[in-house]
Each structure stands twice: as structure tokens, then as C-alpha cells.
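To: structure desk
From: M.T.
Subject: fold request, one chain
Message: Could you run this one when you get a chance? Sequence is below, nothing fancy, just the single chain.
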Amino acid sequence: MTKLLSIMFLMIFTENYVLVQFLGICPFLGVSKKFDSAIGMTGAVVFVMTLASAVTWLIYTYVMAPAGLGYLQTIVFILVIAALVQFVEIFLKKYAKGLYQALGIYLPLITTNCIVLAATIQNIDNSYTFLQSCVNGLSAGIGFGVALIIFCGVRAALENAKPPKCFEGLPITMVAAALTSVTFMGFTGMAENLFH
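Reply: Done. C-alpha cells follow.
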């Protein structure tokens, strides 16, 4: 149980893929303008990452590793992720058209979002069990969502503050991303002492 809590804390706060490892910046910056889009993208990423972690762990453990095909993991994992994203896209298009239109181009970008691939590869590299892999994928998705939602608020506050002309647009967005990243640095010492 301690190991699962440690994985959750690390992936949400201290090893957050977006704010610490700078992976998945494209959808992070693109969807953070509107709170509704940020929530929708969070749900889609959490679902895809959790399911991708489970499916890729099973495929690797029971098919690829016994057959000596571990060198194909990146290709196979990308195919699994692409199939899951297609499933999410079809589901949203049919049952949540507003969210589907709000996410726009960013929904297919989950396929190439390196966060999802990084989580699935990390599960294998760290020799996680099936449950640990699922928790890692879920937590990494939640970490992406927490960072995205906080960033959405910081970005809105900074843009409403009417920055100087030279800071409008992308520069103030980068300042907001830096401020959001700094807030997560405070958790670094906690992780070492909380679970060890």
C-alpha cells in the first residue's frame, strides 16, 4: 500500500510529467485557455493513460517478453495508445459533441502526447506490477490534470492583469507555466520523508 501511495504522490506532485519533466507541453498550452476544455482534456488523458498502462503491461508481460520482442515495445505501445484515443474520440463524438468540438485538434494529439508513452514505458522500466502500472498511469493523468487546471487559473489571472504589450500572448503564457511549475517544487522534500 505504501508503494502505491508513493507512486501516486510522485506522479501527481514531485515527478509531474508536465511541470518537472516538460513532457506533453503542446496540449498543456493549447487547452489551458478555457476551464471546460481543461477538465475535458483531463478526463480524456486520465482515461487513456490508465487504460494504456493496463493494456500495454499485459501485452508486454504475457506476449512480448516471453517471445523476446521487448525491442518492439515503443511501436506496440504507440499502436495501443492510438487505438485507445480513437475509441475516446468516437465515444465523445457520439455522446458528448460539445466537449468533442471544444477539444478539437487536441484530442487526436493525445495519440502523440509523449506523457502517455512515457508512463507506459516507465511501468516496464521500473518493473511495476499490474496494479502499480495502473496506479502510475492514473496518477500521471491526474498530475497532468492538476497542473493543467492550476495553469488555467494562473494563466487567466495573468492575462486579466493586463501585462505590458511585450508580454502579451505567448510570453505571459510561459511566465504562467513557470509560476505553476514553481508551486510544485515545494512538494519535493515531502516525498522523500513521507514514504521512506
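Reply (cont.): The chain has a mean pLDDT of 85. Let me know if you need anything else for the meeting.
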